[in-house]
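Interim report, section 4.2 (structural modelling).
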Amino acid sequence: MPRPRVSVFIAVSLDGFIARTDGGIEWLAMVEDEHGEDYGYGEFFADCDVVVMGRNTFDMVAGFDPWPYAGKRVIVLSRRDADLPEGAEIRQGPVAELLLALAEDGAKRIYIDGGDTIRQALAEDLVDDMTLSHIPVMLGRGLPLFGPEVPHGRWQLLGARHFPTGLVQATYRRLE
Amino acid sequence: MPRPRVSVFIAVSLDGFIARTDGGIEWLAMVEDEHGEDYGYGEFFADCDVVVMGRNTFDMVAGFDPWPYAGKRVIVLSRRDADLPEGAEIRQGPVAELLLALAEDGAKRIYIDGGDTIRQALAEDLVDDMTLSHIPVMLGRGLPLFGPEVPHGRWQLLGARHFPTGLVQATYRRLE
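Predicted structure of the assembly:
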């Protein structure tokens, strides 16, 4: 059974944070585009069968109205129960076992979201591709995307582009 | 007296490190280009009057043969003496006072190098522009480029480009 492709698509400050220390992401608004530019997110999202996120990320997006993952299978990695929107379920890790189960369900591409879950997937060498969108801001402190559990390794640049808002986006593929 | 322009031009891993924990930068070799592509460094270097670096950076480059800054005024920020190549001098910080002195000497553009010195200059809001070259590698651990002393602030993207070696380079200007 082929393992599903595992993808990251995330915005990060120039100094490597995905949120303020309190989880705040209001600074992302600076790249909101009046012409509706979504930086490829819609196409990426449509190509993924399942979203896997950690509990912290879920608790942050759970309050979003409308639920941003409507119609998509969402798996929240957590040991605690939660009020779940339709289509969402709770599982315990580790990520590697979850991916095996998702492969059995026929999943082709998994969207991994949230710092903890991304780092865990990187640590287990499970991430196949990664699209990083650098936002032209420094936060100084915050929740980091990467960390010491991320293994040393080379990546192949698949493409890069930049936008009038100052966002610089690069997509990488893990090299064996 | 106009303050000289202060510029950063530095390579960084995808996870934000400028060197391994032991100072190692052998991973930069992965973007060495057989056609002699220098990613704009030569042009940048030629445009700077003075190089300012911290003691750790100096101790690392001091052993390079030939001395990479021949013909350029180099200032090493340190409280300790050192064997200095021709054209190099030792000063004590802080960076802001040094820039005032350099302005009096007629310096137009300063190249700030080394993590400690760059962070100090950022903390004092002295950096005017910054060219970051992201190398397609994760190190996991190392000497970080940024840190908590870097103040929150927006930057303006001046331009970005990428190269067949996988290097993604973006230049930013500090917004007031």
